[in-house]
Amino acid sequence: MKPPPFRYADPGSVDEALDVLAAEGDGAKVLAGGQSLLPLLAMRLAAPATLVDVNRVPGLDRVEASAGGVRVGALVRHAGLLRDTAAAEVQPLLARATADVAHPAIRNRGTTVGSIAHADPSGELTAVLALTGGSVTVARPSGRAEVGWRDLFVGPLETSLSGPAVVVDAFFPALAERSGTAFAEIARRKGDYAVCGAAVVVTLDEDRRVAAVRAAYLSVGPVPEVHDLTEAVAGKPVDSADWAAAGALARTLVDPDTDLHATADYRRLLVGVLTERTLAEAAAEAAGRTAA
Amino acid sequence: MTTKLFGEPVRRREDARLITGRGRYLDDIGAGALAAAFVRSPHAHARITDIDVEAALDVEGLVAIYTYEDLTGPMAEPLPVLIPHPQLHAPRTGYPLADGVVHHVGEPVVMVVATDRYVAEDAAERIVVGYEELPVVVGIDTARAAEHAVHPDVPDNVAARHHQETGDVEPALAASPHTLTFTQTIERSACTPLEGKGVHARWDPDDGSLRVYSSTQASTSVRAAIAAKLELSLDRVEVIAPDVGGGFGVKIVHPWPEELLVPMAAMRLGREVKWAEDRREHFVSSAHERGQRQEVTVGFDDDGRLTALDVHVWHDNGAYTPYGIIVPIITATQLVGPYVVPVYRVVVESLYTNTVIVTPYRGAGRPQACFAMERTMDRIADALGLDRAEVRRRNLITPDQFPYDHHLTFQDGRPVVYDSGDYPGLLEKLTALVGWESVEERRAEAAGRGKLLGAGMALYVEGTGPGPYEGGHVQVLGSGKVLVSTGLTSQGQGHETVFAQIVASELGVPMEDVEVHTGDTRRFGYAVGTFASRAAVMSGNAVALAARGVREKALRIAADVLEADPSDLEIDEGLVQVRGTPGASIPLRTVAVLSNPLRYAFDEAAKQATQFATHDDTKPPVAPGDAPGLEHRDYYSPLRSTFASGAHAAVVEIDPQTWEIDVVQYAVVHDCGNVVNPMIVEGQVHGGVAQGVGGALYERMAYDADGQLQNASFMDFLVPYASEVPDVVIDHQQTPSPLNPLGIKGAGEAGVIPGSAALASAIEDAVGRRVAAMPISPSELYDLVRDDTAERTAASTRRTGATA
Amino acid sequence: MTSIDTERTVSLTVNGVPREARVPVRRVLADALRDDLGLTGTHVGCAHGVCGSCTVLVDGEPVRSCLVLAVQVQGAAVTTVEGLARDDHRGGQVLHPVQEAFRECHALQCGFCTPGFLVTIAAGLEARDAAEEITEEEVDELVGGNLCRCTGYTNIKKAVRHAAATMREDAR
Q1: pLDDT tens per residue, range B721-744
Q2: What ipTM goes with this model?
Q3: Hey, which chains touch A, using 3+ CB pairs under 8 Å?
Q4: 2Fe-2S ferredoxin-type domain: from which residue to which, for each copy (chain C) (predicted)?
Q5: Which of A6, A177, A237, B671 ranks highest by number of CB atoms within 10 Å?
Q6: What is the DSSP string of A254-291?
Q7: Helix, strand, coil: what percent of chain C each, to 5?
Q8: Same domain, A104 and A193
Q9: Chain C partners of B725 at a C-beta cutoff of 8 Å?
Q10: Is the domain covering B292-466+639-800 a CATH 3.40.50.720 domain?
């Protein structure tokens, strides 16, 4: 379990990184936190010709929280985002989901953006990016562009990015007003990839009635999906909404797979349970943020 | 007054080096050695058609490539059947490197030696092996169906049919007031020590000697195997087990192919060669255990007392049987547990499958045996509407029945005769410890919180300390240092501490003066190994006997000097003194000096023993029958195993929405006779329980139908983290063994044995559905509870009406 | 122009001592520490980042040294288990409270996973306010990311409490 041979560069800027990526061609791969890539190398399931380590690129380690949302630089570690109270203020899901990412030693090294670029459907932050309608900034030799989550995730461990490209940040829109969120996951062991997880957002109208309900799931389907569950509870007063009905609706919308740790049926069960539980929590938060 | 250390929670002396990074594990040895890597079969069953090494040859740093064609003499023959048995009628073993056919994924085909492991893996990756795939047999049902054979000359896939009976079971069953028949399965798991296997070899061409370090549980036997296979005289081979990062059974198997191939390469290349197994190799090329299917028919009377027991077990032994049928025998013989079984018949069919070999993993067939018997007790209780503890109590062997002969033959070829125990005492302590009487109240309380609570228990008896023997050597040096050595090995059990406690107590010296060496054939050449909870029993008693021999000689010499009778002398804190006469004393270190008559002095102490310092010219300096030096070697060879026992109870809470299983209480009552170091024994119990919980709720080897192991990583083979292991409460009982001088019984494996049985019982109690297959995950539990055909327990029906 | 290499010289500080090693770029930090710098106290248990045996501190924070390339720690300060004890300026060493606690509480058996636990716990205890009594949640977090196959964790958790109590005592 030793990585195969590769060449290594640690450019000092995004432009230099793009130069190396362009020169090295398809065999080049960006290395940031490496917490998913290094195991693949150790098992020789990946054999990049060149690793382009962006850890020395200045300026990518910032979390910028503004009224509109949170921009997370490509070198922000999970642990850094978890500690960022300003980010949690703007988009509470970030800290809630990040707390469930693996274990502290992995969170100290792994990056939020890296886990998004890894496009693992069991990744906590891929689900959050989807649910919040987020995007990533992709630097290419031709310039920078925003890529929305829907255009980014193509399949399990597969993004739409090709050719020389560096994801320089991810943007998570702020939690809307009169909204609340919650995140929960069930893993076989604490810190494992979730058997199933749910990230939800509930938005109320000015009368504290349910206006919108959306959910995204982990480890359910090949790419993150956002499901609109509003119809199950639309217009219901927040205190008497039937979250179980939303859970039941969610179960009909998902199409999970069976793997070693759980059957598709069990995952569907958890989708229902986690939906109901997280919605109740998110609704309480939304109610707290909505003037009575 | 003697130095009292036996029985004390003495802190471990191994720890000083292990907590500072100064341990010396296999891969820490031989910096700069060449590294070996292996091309292993990607197929579960295939004929090798071609091996093309061409592409590997230009890898810079490649040193050598070996295939079966390069093996000569005994190396080209099959690996040994280590433990032959008359009922193992079709033993099969592999070769160090595959000879034409591979029988499981992971079997070594080519060995590559290179300047480091990275390069060795590069070269291995480029070697192209052609395979013609053959039909694959995976799983007990497929093996039994025998549409295909793992070994063509064993068409029914049955390696062994192990059979024991204590009477005529069929009439006994026919005459029983009640009978029940049921089947159960238990899946594969594995030891997975944090350190994999590993071998380092250094050949000295000048004196034609070989030194091998191996992360093994049996260094003396590895030595013998290497000598035989590489055609070396035994005295030219030394094998040392350095610090070993856990064993749990997998490292008792030997010789592993690598234990022969690495020394072979070192000899041929004249260079140091090392192989440190990586995690993926460990999953696919070491050993697994546990996989069994059990069919139980039990007869019992209206009070729930056993009248007859008939058990048929199908045991998955993997592709080969190098370790014989030890696991099946243990299952067969330990199944009876602490109970009176009037008539017992057991048949274990050991089956070949195209999977990794199956050899002992901590517990070694006992967790399965316990699962069979304890779940039988639960079923009897359920059928009769009796309390599960009460049914057990009625069937227990009572303290006045010892020695208790089960009329079975154990894994050591000796009778299963329980030497001592107090099983009702265990059960009483257990029910008190777990609060068995209050389970119904707690169930109601949990229900109020939306949780399903259930409790379960399991008892076991464990044969420990099997022979044939272990030895010990104790030597007092002129410096006062006491050297202790024994041949068996250590993998974290604290032997350096425990054996030092024993010797210090026996000899009357401070523990700091005692230095213990294990698993080093240079120090002690005769040994069997560390397995079957035997180290404390076997080597503990051996070093005690050796220490007693030293003590006797010391008293004899001191008596001469002090002009006293040896029986009036005592040794305390390293001083031999006349009891009750202060001042009449001689340090033990001086006795050591005097024990060796000298011509040459090299320090002040030695002068006392030189020829002009001693004056008795009436007898030779070394008397006939005596020997120079204050040392003694002795052996302990028991008549038969000593039987430890214990009882576990688990309380679970299950979330009826997600079916997550939370072990909220785990109680252990443990009896391993006299305890040398209670801190270490508790540590063994803790670790065993964690493995038991892992085996019950998390760990399984998931093979697909093609014989590919689907979860060969710690990401998917779920060894519990701290978050998955419950806190354990322990109560002790001490029933000394009458069989050995120290009255001790083994403790190493006990903790793991009842895990699956107790947890299955608790889960069944919580959900009211029969749990007959372990391990069980939340996903599987969900399948069970919504399966309309799944059997409901009578207890749940009685408890809730017919609505369970 | 960015250099693209197959080998590099890495300079770093290990346990307070400046060190340098010429390594192939693919060498993981664990192997560089063990094989190039001779610090074999750090153990590799799984090589894929799950078990935590190889955990070391990089600039004070626990990371899996099997999931970091040696070339990536250029200029960094690495602490391994060999660096936990402090020099007592009398030719000996003073063990870190967590090392003492592991021995006192029998928190290790085979010792293979121990270095990873020790550095993780030491870093965690040092990052918290020693004067505060440690909570069970903190204990769980500190031990929760490493695998041990011997101890069942009971005594490791006990050792964390013990070490925290010692540090609390020292902080008074």
Answers
A1: 999 999 999 999 999 999 999 999
A2: 0.98
A3: B, C
A4: 8-84
A5: B671
A6: ------SS--HHHHHHHHHHHHHHHHHHHHHHHHHTS-
A7: 35, 20, 45
A8: no
A9: 152-154
A10: no
